Amino acid sequence: MTFGINNAPSHFQRMMNEIFPEELSEGWLIIYTDDIIVFSKTWEEHMYRLSRVWTKIQSVNMKISLKKCHFKFKELKALEHVVYGYYRQHTKDFTSIARPLYKLCDKDTVLEMTVDRVKAFEYLRQAVTTASLLLMPDFKLPFKLYIAASGDGLGAALHRVQIINHKPVEGPKCFISRQIKPSEARYGASQMVCL
């Protein structure tokens, strides 16, 4: 397809969607114009999926530039978002809420769904399905950054200002949180917020 044609991107996207209908419906392939993202839980599964994609690309006489390919990454940047634990940054107090679930990763922890763990899971599931903050920001308006630190963790909220009904309305754009390391537990609050 010739470069510069106004509707070329939409035609190309439609063509890519028509080449990979099963893979897209199975939910492990994302295509955005000429970017193809394949994700899997295991290496074997990933290799199988890559071979399916490669076979289909060859079957329609398309070519891939290996210089532009990235393989075996746990996270990647797509459309200016880092894809890894994606909803974490859109869930207020994620680390504090998920703490009972994180404890399941500790050595010698009994794998048991306690009331706290079920509550945490249900809350996070609800938060993911009702994300309220993915409006595009107006970069002419200010952003506000709120930060907090405690003995349990660190957190920050980036709020954007939007004009709604001719009035500035503040709302969250993203949240960041993490547990503190044992060596950081000795810091005072003013030092912790600088982490």
Automatic annotation (TrEMBL):
A Pfam family reported for this protein in Swiss-Prot or TrEMBL: RVT_1
Classification via Gene3D superfamilies: 3.30.70.270
Reverse transcriptase domain location: 1-75
Signal peptide: none
Domain Reverse transcriptase/retrotransposon-derived protein RNase H-like: 116-194
Membrane-spanning parts: none
Protein name, as recorded: Reverse transcriptase domain-containing protein
Originating organism: Austropuccinia psidii MF-1
